Amino acid sequence: MKALNIAATGMKAQELNVEVISNNIANMRTTGFKRQRPDFQDLLYQDLRRPGTTTSATGTQVPAGLEIGLGVRTAATPRVMSQGDVVGTESQLDLAIRGDGFFRIQLPDGRTAYTRDGSFERDANGTLVTVDGYQVQPGIVIPENTISLTINSEGTVQATLQNGQDAVELGQIDLARFVNPVGLEGLGDNLYVATAASGDEQVGNAGQEGFGTLLQGYLEQANVNAVAEMSDLIAAQRAYEMNARVVSAADEMLSATSNLR
């Protein structure tokens, strides 16, 4: 009986759906996190009678065919790259991107990673780094005698030093954007890397056409809506229960058939 296998594919799909939802909920407080959603596709169909089949010598045709679907599968779990809420912090090294773009991060193996998490610090050498110590490109070094730091909306970094001289420009923070940001591969630690699907990085300054602007002293929160996620979780649970009920019904039918005398 095909119903058993069909319902099993439905249960597997909803199990993955719940896993995606649980990951979204778990990362509700993760800075710069982008929620995922599962995309489902129906499987192949078994044609028992194809539409348009000729039924007589005069050329009459079947207006509707007879086909049985074989279930469902998860096709993808794309990230939703919508803007998260921006909240103020008390750190002058915190940055939020309002609009499109990613911060460029130098990984220890030489690769470039990308993130929306702007909770930066400075290391022992004064270099601007992530919380894991990875350098923020193109490499901003903050002097030891800096008393205040200013980062404008275009990413220009200026420091006021203890000697009271005019603000010294330290450099400019680059942003990267992609033709298809959904195609980025997640590494964990709030980092992504480019893939063939995302396309090559397009590097520019904040505020340029196609790039967002920077907000100093702010961080972007996850774009997870708790109410929507709970609603989706309930719907996934009900769908799983209905598929399980189909398995039970199919089992009862097979049991009835086997008990025929």
TrEMBL record:
<dbReference type="Pfam" id="PF00460">
    <property type="entry name" value="Flg_bb_rod"/>
</dbReference>
<dbReference type="GO" id="GO:0071978">
    <property type="term" value="P:bacterial-type flagellum-dependent swarming motility"/>
</dbReference>
<keyword id="KW-0966">Cell projection</keyword>
<feature type="domain" description="Flagellar basal-body/hook protein C-terminal">
    <location>
        <begin position="216"/>
        <end position="260"/>
    </location>
</feature>
<comment type="subunit">
    <text>The basal body constitutes a major portion of the flagellar organelle and consists of four rings (L,P,S, and M) mounted on a central rod. The rod consists of about 26 subunits of FlgG in the distal portion, and FlgB, FlgC and FlgF are thought to build up the proximal portion of the rod with about 6 subunits each.</text>
</comment>
<dbReference type="GO" id="GO:0009426">
    <property type="term" value="C:bacterial-type flagellum basal body, distal rod"/>
</dbReference>
<dbReference type="Pfam" id="PF22692">
    <property type="entry name" value="LlgE_F_G_D1"/>
</dbReference>
<dbReference type="InterPro" id="IPR019776">
    <property type="entry name" value="Flagellar_basal_body_rod_CS"/>
</dbReference>
<dbReference type="InterPro" id="IPR012834">
    <property type="entry name" value="FlgG_G_neg"/>
</dbReference>
<feature type="domain" description="Flagellar hook protein FlgE/F/G-like D1">
    <location>
        <begin position="96"/>
        <end position="159"/>
    </location>
</feature>
<dbReference type="InterPro" id="IPR001444">
    <property type="entry name" value="Flag_bb_rod_N"/>
</dbReference>
<dbReference type="InterPro" id="IPR053967">
    <property type="entry name" value="LlgE_F_G-like_D1"/>
</dbReference>
<comment type="similarity">
    <text>Belongs to the flagella basal body rod proteins family.</text>
</comment>
<keyword id="KW-0969">Cilium</keyword>
<protein>
    <recommendedName>
        <fullName>Flagellar basal-body rod protein FlgG</fullName>
    </recommendedName>
</protein>
<keyword id="KW-0975">Bacterial flagellum</keyword>
<dbReference type="InterPro" id="IPR037925">
    <property type="entry name" value="FlgE/F/G-like"/>
</dbReference>
<dbReference type="InterPro" id="IPR010930">
    <property type="entry name" value="Flg_bb/hook_C_dom"/>
</dbReference>
<keyword id="KW-0282">Flagellum</keyword>
<dbReference type="InterPro" id="IPR020013">
    <property type="entry name" value="Flagellar_FlgE/F/G"/>
</dbReference>
<feature type="domain" description="Flagellar basal body rod protein N-terminal">
    <location>
        <begin position="4"/>
        <end position="34"/>
    </location>
</feature>
<dbReference type="Pfam" id="PF06429">
    <property type="entry name" value="Flg_bbr_C"/>
</dbReference>
